Amino acid sequence: MAQAAAVAKPPAPPRRRRASATPRKLPYLLIAPAALLMLGFIAYPVISVFYYSLQNYNPTKPWRNGYAGFDNFVHAFTEDPVFWNTLTFSAKWVFVEVGLQLLFGLALALIVNQSFVGRAMGRAMVFSPWAVSGVLTSAIWVLLYNSQTGLTRYLADMGIGSYGTSWLSDTSTVFPAAIVADLWRGVPFFAILILADLQSVSKDLYEAAEVDGASRFKQFLHITLPHLKDAIILSTLLRAVWEFNNVDLLYTLTGGGPAGETTTLPLYIANTSVDAHNFGYASALTTVAFVILLFCSMVYLRLSKFGGDDK
User: Fold this and answer.
1) Distance (Å, rounded) from C-alpha 124 to C-alpha 294?
2) pTM for this one?
3) Rounded to 10 degrees, what is the CA torsion of 151, 180, 113, 226?
4) Stretch 101-116: mean pLDDT, rounded?
């Protein structure tokens, strides 16, 4: 009986082979080279800046190099008046530039969003300055502000102003002149982002508002602006960070002058590192700028309730 039962027992099912882990790891293996390159080009410079911010490092004076602790930060906050001047001007520059760029960019986006003859050409002309590099933009405006062949020469011919005046060398006019030059390139950034968001607004909302007797201003206030909230918050944050770190335009246009009137904190950092070769102090200033941007960005996103409900 025992032998019969043993013979009648069905054979055990074959063991399943374990699935190979290679197909699941394949995507990570494929992106590993790019991830390592990004880590090397981003993480290493950031760590190096934090490291050198605690050092006295000047290749032209190697006998003074060594560990400095927090001396560079103490010097910046207590002994360097240029740091506070450049930080104040940076805040002024960002506030004025971003505010005006948002205002004009919103107006341009609303205009080119309408239907009119030649709208495609109009959009191309509005957006074209954004394709121009910062250095080339500076070169264009340097020529426009040239005292011999630029705008001031033609204005003097019409009896406005005097010959030989340069808006970039006068402390009373250099700031507005730099603002106008950067507006020419920065306004299309807001226009592009806002126009892209305007395309997604349902026309049914405007038709329903017109039936209810809402004016164009009320439609803009209660339909357009709420829909553009997140786009405006994100674009202003990105542009504020960009303008704070703006070096190429001001460096080419004014060089930080006259008398340091247009020197931003990043431009001061560039001059400290490249011209004075004081890389330790420049790294400390860079760390301070990084902390300021990080803190302001977090506070701005928190107060603006980015991505949240309006209720």
Assistant:
1) 35
2) 0.83
3) -160
4) 88
